[in-house]
Amino acid sequence: MATEVKVPTLGESITEATLGQWLKKPGDPVKADEPIASLETDKVAVEVPSPVAGVMGDQVVAEGDTVEVGAVIARIESGSAAAHPAAPAPASTPVNPTGPGENAQVRAEEAPEEEGGPLTLSPSVRRLVLEHGVDPSKIKGTGKDGRLTKDDVLAAARNRESQPAAPAAAPSPPPPPPSAPAIAAAPSGERREERVRMTRLRQTVARRLKEAQNTAAMLTTFNDVDMTEVMAARGRYKDLFEKKHGIRLGFMSFFVKAAVLAARDVPSVNAYIEGDEIVYHDYVDVSVAVSAPNGLVVPVIRNAHTLSFAQIEQTIADFGKRAKDGTLTMADMTGGTFTISNGGIFGSLLSTPIINPPQSAVLGMHRIEDRPVVRDGQIVARPMMYLALSYDHRLVDGREAVTFLVRMKEALEDPTRLLIDL
């Protein structure tokens, strides 16, 4: 008897997704709640678990197909893998005749774990395995249920490179990633190009960013902040903070607190336009841009105006971990009244961020660097950071945008204001 596997509910207003990757092959044993496929939605990658234990049966749809919520994508057969052997592919007709990269992919999937079961690799981990040519069965996974993570693969690749080469025959070059077409070795100087289909997430990001430019009257204003006092406060209390709360004290909690404080004085920055009405919020839900394997995602810190420094840092750390593991949910992404994007961690000096519709404003943080400034008539070096506020000029006036940044600057240059609400 077969059990149907259907596309789960994906979140509010999400009605379809793209089947990005099959994590199990027909004939593979499957445990209850074990992921068998990965779906790409407009916002996140979602794993589809098996509702029962059994053997992977028919795969109704192919990778890259668009599926609707509730649609049947596979069937799980009862019994064991031995009773349902996978049909071998004819020798003259390979299953995926796309080059050596696909054969390497099959070998990676079929490599047994130490417990004897097949490995389940996420798409991003599988790509790294192929790129670095490592054996996934010899890597100890640190992810959920012992699954391999990207960091596990990269660490294994670094360890292998650091070891002295054995006096053996020169190894063949690693195969190309699965998305790359098999390209014969080209003579030196020959120009080549590669076409890779955009993921559903990347397509959605591109569309929404362009819609924001077409809809909003966007403008960006700038200011700079002397980070001396924030850095001093962090240096004084970071050890005690980590000992008490079990989390490091970073800069982001200061900026979230400062943005909440400034939004009270300039509520239009925390509002948005809906039709011919302006929707004001008496709460602040801060969207934080986080880098994930499949692109930029923006989970939301709910009720940031009520959270302590420790609660903000713990929430951000959890978002970062789950973004890396690909376990962020639709609920994590929904909503948000104001966005903070920290390009400084990548070395950005200055930028003009694009607002995240339907929000009216986004704050761009940048790198901290020592620059000469004048203090009490003397030229001194101070750790300075540029802040950029992009906003919808239909709702936020220039005076309000400047006031918002000035309030943030005052709070960050004198962090005591964050504690006494000034």
Q: Work out the helix count.
A: 10
Based on Cα principal axes, name the global outline: globular
Kindly report the name of the CATH homologous superfamily of the largest domain.
Chloramphenicol acetyltransferase-like domain
Order of helices and strands: EEEEEEEEHHHHEHHEEEEEEHHEEEEHH
Topology, number of strands: 19
Average pLDDT value? Answer: 80
Major sheet attributes: 7 strands, mixed
The name of the CATH topology of the largest domain is Chloramphenicol Acetyltransferase
| Rounded Rg | 25 Å
> Would you identify the CATH architecture of the largest domain?
2-Layer Sandwich
User: Could you list the spans in which at least 5 consecutive residues all have pLDDT below 50?
Assistant: 86-117
Number of domains: 2
Overall helicity: 25-40%
Strand content: 15-25%
Sheet/helix structural class: alpha+beta
CATH class of the largest domain: Alpha Beta
End-to-end Cα distance: 67 Å
Q: How would you describe the overall organization of this protein?
A:
The chain is α+β, with helices and mostly antiparallel strands. It folds into 2 domains: 2-162, Beta Barrel (OB fold (Dihydrolipoamide Acetyltransferase, E2P)), CATH 2.40.50.100; 203-420, Chloramphenicol Acetyltransferase. Helices cover 29% and strands 23% of the residues. The protein contains 10 helices and 19 strands. The protein has helices spanning 100-110, 123-132, 150-162, 200-215, 228-245, 252-265, 309-325, 330-333, 398-413, 416-420; strands at 2-6, 16-22, 29-30, 35-40, 45-49, 54-59, 66-68, 72-77, 218-226, 272-274, 277-279, 286-288, 290-292, 295-297, 300-301, 338-342, 361-365, 369-375, 378-392. Helix 6 packs across helix 7 (309-325). The protein is globular and about 80 Å long. It starts with a strand and ends with a helix. The model is unreliable at 86-117 (pLDDT under 50).
